[in-house]
Specification:
CATH topology: Alpha-Beta Plaits
Pfam family, one: RVT_1
Oligomer: single chain
Radius of gyration: 19 Å
CATH class: Alpha Beta
Protein name: Retrovirus-related Pol polyprotein from type-1 retrotransposable element R2
Helix content: 25-40%
Domain Reverse transcriptase: 1-174
Number of strands: 10
Number of domains: 1
Structural class: alpha+beta
Distance between the termini: 17 Å
Organism: Elysia marginata
Number of helices: 5
Length: 176
């Protein structure tokens, strides 16, 4: 961002977090994604078996009243969970931005986003590009039963001109 400020170039960010991202992975889509990325089929089978046998207990008055099969989400506290989520997130980002070439350059490389865990910083040189990035990401997320957290997405810019474009996700205007 400092380089863009030094050269008086606009840089726009949208900070995105996923609503309960680790609870929303769709297992079948995760297995298909792992196969798409040519992950060893034996490893996929082991992980599938681990997840197919996953159950959750329903407690009432300190007693287990029911057991339910878990069909969404990654296992809390499991060492594999962050990796599985990152595989799934890569698929979402590829689907959303695969043919989108960003205009932001970092170290001579075109960059559309920066990611850490379930947080994404979408980058654009202008508001129209940023709006397109949000729209593409929102659509890709909805294809997998996920959605943007509307309380958290924030837009930040170094532009000296006031924003004229409304950027929306799930029909709601994102906060500047």
């Amino acid at each position: 961002m400092e380089k863009y400020l030094q050269h008086q170039q606009e840089l726009h960010h949208v900070f995105i977090d996923f609503k309960k991202a680790f609870d929303r992975d769709w297992h079948e889509a995760l297995w298909l994604t792992m196969r798409k990325y040519n992950i060893n089929s034996n490893l996929i089978s082991v992980i599938e078996n681990l997840y197919n046998k996953a159950t959750s207990a329903v407690f009432c008055n300190n007693n287990i009243v029911d057991w339910l099969r878990t069909t969404v989400g990654v296992r809390q506290g499991c060492l594999l969970s962050p990796t599985l989520f990152n595989i799934f997130l890569k698929r979402i980002m590829t689907d959303a931005l695969g043919d989108h070439f960003g205009t932001v350059s970092i170290g001579g490389r075109s960059v559309t986003n920066l990611r850490f865990a379930d947080d994404i910083d979408g980058l654009a040189r202008n508001e129209c590009e940023l709006a397109s990035l949000v729209k593409r990401l929102d659509k890709a997320l909805s294809n997998f039963g996920m959605r943007l957290v509307l309380k958290k997405p924030k837009i930040m810019t170094n532009s000296k001109e006031s924003s004229k474009k409304e950027i929306k996700a799930n029909g709601q205007i994102l906060e500047m």
